[in-house]
Amino acid sequence: MTATRVLVLNSGSSSVKYQLLDMRDGSRLAVGLVERIGEETSRLKHTPLTGGGVEERERIEPIADHGAALRAVSAELSADGLGLDSPELAAIGHRVVHGGLQFTEPTVVTDEVLAEIQRLVPVAPLHNPANITGIRTAQALRPDLPQVAVFDTAFHTTMPESAARYAIDVATADEHRVRRYGFHGTSHAYVSRKTAWLLGKAPEDVNVIVLHLGNGASASAVRGGRCVETSMGLTPLEGLVMGTRSGDVDPAVVFHLARVGGMSIDEIDTLLNKKSGLVGLCGDNDMREIRRRVDGGDEAAALAFDIYVHRLKKYIGAYYAVLGRVDAIAFTAGVGENAAPVREAAVAGLEELGLAVDGELNAVRSDEPRLISPEYARVAVAVVPTDEELEIARQTYALVGNPS
Q1: Taking the alpha carbons of 94, 95, 97, 103 in that order, is the dihedral positive or negative?
Q2: According to the model, what pLDDT value does residue 129 have?
Q3: How would residue 402 be classed by pLDDT, with cut points 50, 70 and 90?
Q4: What is the pTM of this model?
Q5: What is the CA radius of gyration of the chain?
Q6: pLDDT tens-digit readout, 223-281
Q7: Is residue 216's pLDDT more than 60?
Q8: 20 to 30 Å CA-CA from 40: which of 16, 25, 125, 396?
């Protein structure tokens, strides 16, 4: 029997998201989420997508750790005839946030690979430890199965040094691995390729600005299928205004808050990562609620929206200059896919750059990739739902699958 299934795991500090896919056609066999791991009220939501029906199952019970979480996932999959012991399972693909410069492609996990991912923990302290835990747990459950790490940073390793380097002392930067790595790379890779498909062209013939707008947000400039610039840097804090992250600030703000405000480094870290962005500006990080407040005349929400869009426009203009020629701008992720006012405002006034949005097309809600620009627009504006799990599964299967 040919093994054609891939289980995709996205392990967080207290959660595990998962999808089981059949790589013959990319279809999903099951999806689910385990959250609040380590608490008494842990919850597992599991949805089988086979057999013609879609019926979510939910379990609320203590799940002590990631090992218990994956065993619970395995039990749910087994109940649907999709267990981890199935000979049809070809590999397990893991999202790993930070791969540094060493990992530019999906990689079969070995002890040496795990050690390098561990060495990158100082530049990804919130993410890499959880990713490592997920890998080790999956290894224990299926030691015979290939475990593949797919890195958020990999797509951005094609950036030239002129884009990746910060203008600080080179020796210091090299010693402490200080450079721009970028994140959301799996999404940017998928969306840039899908945008080329939408235009009926090959990725190598298309220049795309991808705007991944969720609670975390990032932009990328993709020339001929290769990333040449992205907005996130050493960490996911740099760049666009986000749900709770500030994005770009003068680095001296940190010194000022420490010296004048008497704040500790940890307090400033918490401020910029968890109490800034939209939530810091107006108390909400849900764009739907912010728009409701804007429509109701709320001045704080209106200012937050304007700051968000202003930063977005700055990056569109900057990346237009970097690319020289832009064939399309693609909006993706939760806000990018669903917030029509954000898309409209982001390109408003940029007609001289060939950008425009058709109001009726922009207002349409759909799960399908689509163009929202008028036919006369020189640059296509697209909405492309991202699919990071499918991208991880494809990269995993391409590396270790046996399509024969």
Answers
A1: positive
A2: 87
A3: low
A4: 0.91
A5: 22
A6: 999 999 999 999 889 999 999 999 999 999 999 999 999 999 999 999 999 999 999 99
A7: yes
A8: 125
Q: Mapped to the 3 state alphabet, what secondary structure does the chain carry? A: CCCCEEEEEEECCCEEEEEEEECCCCEEEEEEEEECCCCCCCEEEEEECCCCCCCCEEEECCCCCHHHHHHHHHHHHHHCCCCCCCCCEEEEEEEECCCCCCCCCCEECCHHHHHHHHHCHHHCCCCHHHHHHHHHHHHHHCCCCCEEEEECCHHHHHCCHHHHCCCCCHHHHHHCCCCCCCCCHHHHHHHHHHHHHHCCCCHHHCEEEEEEECCCEEEEEEECCEEEEECCCCCCCCCCCCCCCCCCCCCHHHHHHHHCCCCCHHHHHHHHHHCCHHHHHHCCCCHHHHHHHHHCCCHHHHHHHHHHHHHHHHHHHHHHHHHCCCCEEEEEHHHHHHCHHHHHHHHCCCHHHCCCCCHHHHHCCCCCCEECCCCCCCCEEEECCCCHHHHHHHHHHHHHCCCC
CA 93 to chain centre: 15
- Spatial contact of 188 and 216, defined as CB atoms under 8 Å apart: no
- CB distance 343 to 362 below 8 Å: yes
Write out the two tokens for 275: 């109490």
Residue 359: band (very low, low, confident or very high) from pLDDT cuts 50, 70, 90: very high
Share of the chain above pLDDT 70, in %: 98
Six token digits for residue 218: 């990032």
- 113-122 per-position pLDDT tens digit: 999 999 988 8
Active-site annotation, residues = 152
Q: Confidence band (pLDDT; 50, 70, 90) for 404?
A: very low
Q: Which two tokens mark 106? A: 């999906």
Q: Which residue has the tokens 């426009």?
A: 313
What is the per-residue pLDDT across 150-192, written as a single tens digit (0 to 9) for each? 999 999 999 999 999 999 999 999 999 899 999 999 999 999 9
Mean pLDDT of 100-123: 91
Q: Which residues of 346-362 are buried (b: 16+ CB within 10 A; e: fewer)?
A: bbeebeeebbbbbeeeb
Q: Judge whether 134 and 148 are in contact, CB under 8 Å.
A: no
Q: What is the mean pLDDT of residues 345-368?
A: 96
Closest CA to 181 of 192, 166, 167: 166
The rounded distance, in Å, linking the Cα atoms of 391 and 370 is 19
